[in-house]
Amino acid sequence: MILLLLLLFFSFINLATSSELCFDSHCTGDYQTIRFPFRIVNGQPKSCGYPGFDLSCHPTGEPLLHLPHSGDFIVQNIDYMHQEIRINDPDYCLPKKILYLNLSGSPFVKKNSQTVAFFNCSSNYIPYWYNDPIYCLSSHSHTVYASSSPMLINMFESNCAMIKTVSVPSSFSYSSNLWEYLLLKWENPDCGRCESVGQRCEVKSNSSNEIQCTDSQGRSRVGANVVSIAMGVVAAVICFLGVLCCLCFKINFRRRGSSSSIAHWTVSSQRTRTMGLNGATIESYPKFVLDESLSLPKPNNNVCPICLAQYQPKEIVKSIPNCQHCFHECCIDEWLRLKASCPVCRKSPIEAPPSNPS
Ligand SMILES: *[C@@H]1O[C@H](CO)[C@@H](O)[C@H](O)[C@H]1NC(C)=O
Ligand SMILES: *[C@@H]1O[C@H](CO)[C@@H](O)[C@H](O)[C@H]1NC(C)=O
Ligand SMILES: *[C@@H]1O[C@H](CO)[C@@H](O)[C@H](O)[C@H]1NC(C)=O
Question: Mapping DSSP to helix (H, G, I), strand (E, B) and coil, where does residue 130 land?
Answer without folding.
Answer: coil
